[in-house]
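tool_call: predict_structure(chain=1)
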Amino acid sequence: MDLRSILLVTQYDGGEFAGWQRQPDARTVQGEMEVVLNRLCGGNPVSAVGAGRTDAGVHAHGQGVGVRMPPSWTPDRLRRAMNSLLPRDIWVAAAHEMTPDFHPRRSATARRYGYLVGTDEGAWSPFRRRYEWAVRHPLDATALAEEAASLMGEHTFRAFAVAHTAPVDDHHRCVIHHAAWVPRDGGWVFEVAANRFLHHMVRFLVGTMIDVAQGRRPRGTIARLLVAPDNRETTAPAPAHGLSLQQVTYPVTCYAQC
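tool_result:
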């Protein structure tokens, strides 16, 4: 039987998950989605392949999830069926039929993340601190802008990745398409888009830039660390709960209607 290739644009609150990837003894987003998919297919196993493996506590507004389903499952029918069975902290926002050779990770051309930082007293509210990092000291806007600007273009990010999590022959190079700190009510959001991201990369970057913006590290720290051979001088990663995968971009040729 020829299976239908479907992209599920998925949102989730990562607070109660041990990350995206299925684990035998922990609750994960992939695991919950596959339970529902298997049920819809009469107990036959169906793999949910994500565009990226978000860590424990990280949220998503637009995770790309690829599935292959029997032809009777149209994208809209599958989306409605899944949303009726998924737990409250996962929701399929959209579904698209894709070409047979589509792969949710390898076909992606860009990924966009957002990291929320709160600087006002309200950031300590239980309704906000689940989704943003509340910091106690003011941030230097000029320092934030300068450090983010130094990320643009192609660089090696060994200093901003967990050691030994990439293959030994990985070059650790990423192309940053967009990086900016944008002011918002009560704080800031760090927006970053790239062709790929390394393990903990955004969180390492945010933690380091916050240190610079609070005067604990000198300006130019990001540029200096971009040529460092490892992460020994990098600030500890920012908390996971402020981070969200916002969007995964695919070429229009991956969509079946094209």
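agent: The first strand starts at residue 4 and ends at 12. Proceeding to next step.
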